Amino acid sequence: MPRGDGCLSHDLLPGEKGPQDACGVFGVWAPGEDVAKLAYYGLYALQHRGQESAGIAASDGTRLLVYKDMGLVSQVFNERSLDSLKGHLAIGHCRYSTTGGSTWENAQPTLGGHDGSTVALAHNGNLVNSAELKALIEDRMAPGQSHIGELRRGNTTDTALVTALLADDPDRSLEARALEVMPLLRGAFCFVFMDEHTLYAARDPQGIRPLVIGRLERGWVVASETAALDIVGASFIREVEPGELIAVDEDGLRSQRFASAEPKGCVFEYVYLARPDTTINGRVVHESRVAMGRALAREHPVEADLVIPTPESGTPAAIGYAQESGISYGQGLVKNAYVGRTFIQPSQTIRQLGIRLKLNPLRDVIRGKRLVVVDDSIVRGNTQRALVRMLREAGAKEVHVRISSPPVRWPCFYGIDFATRAELIATGIGVDEVCNSLGADSLGYISEDGMIAATEQPRDRLCTACFTGQYPVPLPAEDRLGKEILELQLPVDIVAEAIARP
Q1: Annotated binding residues for Mg(2+), as ranges?
Q2: Which domains, ranges and CATH numbers included, belong to the chain?
Q3: In this predicted model, what pLDDT tens digit does every residue of 197-252 receive, in sequence order?
Q4: Which conformational region is residue 125 in: left (phi greater than 0), alpha (psi within -120 to 50 degrees), or beta?
Q5: Are 196 and 59 in contact (CB under 8 A)?
Q6: In the beta sheet, which residues pair with residue 309?
Q7: Whole-prediction pTM
Q8: Residues labelled as active-site residues
Q9: How many helices (H) and strands (E) does the chain have?
């Protein structure tokens, strides 16, 4: 099952995976600016989209360098490493594994190319035809070619496949190769890539994941979210259009189309994935989430004393629920913001404490109260079940759970880490049965209509596959999908015999 590139704002039991986000990508072309530090701060703003590894590539027009490692952006980089990345253009990436495991070899940006022409690539999304692309590479490339260096070094990501395809012809420009390669790709992709002189960005024809363009006083920025433009002082210009390839160099910004636009933006970006202060298609995400909470209150009213969020992901919807219902809003749970931001695994004793590692109740606030607890989604149900139990033990009189998305019944193959269908609690059972499983007094999900209305986007321009099972990009056979597809299928001769670029 492909995984998206995640955030840790969702409150999870130790060892449990909730909905994880897609990676964060950032690119900057700005002569005279400290582009590595701009990329660093851009990635810092996108940290919620990927917390397994981080990397930056930079070029001064002669030499392209990549620095990457496992960990958070603030753990990977320091003043010394950033100072080593000199130049006028840079790209950056923060990762949650989508295709290929969470290893140093799979950290991005990936690197490939030939003498005198190098390509570095950062990817947000998940391709569904990786097995097909792998076969294409086998046909095109003989062992020993230097431009498959990432595969030689053990990289098992779809990003490495695209890097290899972009680097397979030293006699053609990177731009020309990109226009040939992009139409071959299926699935969700937002690419930010570069050679020694030019910054590029491309977005899949469905525009499933967000990608925006910003203007600096002396340059240009491309990023996954508008929040990253804000942090580096760039003015929002527009979104990269679905099916568009842009290039930025000393002649400015130019655009070409490699496919017709068929917009199907991910609705879960509005529900949970994007930062609340990000704007997608003209709609501020925070406003969408508040509107979802208001719709929840209209669709599933209940007599209660206090509305509390599951922090932080449920906060905007809880505010909207309180505003619409007239029930007081309060903070009933305190979140430890640092849980999940360490590589030290909890001991068995700590693990048994469950959700208390992440959340702790304010007993004086909730004791004797009828609570409405608002969250963004239910995946397996383990976290909500433990939360309901914890609130009751802390003295809550009633616990009514409200969810600002419909039941998740289908896995995502475009970059979100949901469980397999068999593990999703809503698969094959009704709301009352889910409610009984959680131990709540009542349970209400927002309707699909209510969720979509809150985004202020046309229904036919949104991907709702995780709720409906209607996938906008056709999927291959099940045995050609999955996070480990390349780890299982990469040919031994290519991995063993190919010569990596120094």
Answers
A1: 313, 375-376
A2: 24-264+485-497 (3.60.20.10), 284-457 (3.40.50.2020)
A3: 999 999 999 999 999 999 999 999 999 999 999 999 999 999 999 999 999 999 99
A4: left
A5: yes
A6: 374
A7: 0.89
A8: 23
A9: 19, 23
- Tell me if 123 sits within 8 A of 93, measured CB to CB: yes
- Binding-site sequence positions: 266, 313, 375-376, 412, 463, 466
Known binding-site residue numbers for [4Fe-4S] cluster: 266, 412, 463, 466
What are the angstrom distances between the C-alpha of 394 and each of 361, 367, 371, 399, 472?
Answer: 7, 6, 12, 11, 45
Q: What is the pLDDT of residues 69-121, one digit of tens each?
A: 999 999 999 999 999 999 999 999 998 765 556 677 888 999 998 776 799 99
Tokens of 361: 């109740």
Instruction: Report d(CA 395, CA 15) in Å as an integer.
Output: 27
- Please answer whether residues 96 and 21 qualify as being in contact, where contact means their C-beta atoms are separated by less than 8 angstroms: yes
Per the structure block, which two tokens stand in for 276? 């609340």
How many other β-carbons are positioned within 10 Å of the β-carbon of residue 390?
19
Q: Output DSSP code: residue 194.
A: E
Which region, left, alpha or beta, applies to residue 464 given φ > 0 means left and ψ of -120 to 50 means alpha? alpha
What would the pLDDT profile of 15-24 be if each residue is shown by its tens digit?
444 555 569 9
DSSP reduced 3-state for 112:
strand
Q: Side chain identity at 209, as an amino acid letter? A: R
Residue 472 has pLDDT above 60, yes or no: yes
Q: Cβ distance 10 to 312 under 8 Å?
A: no
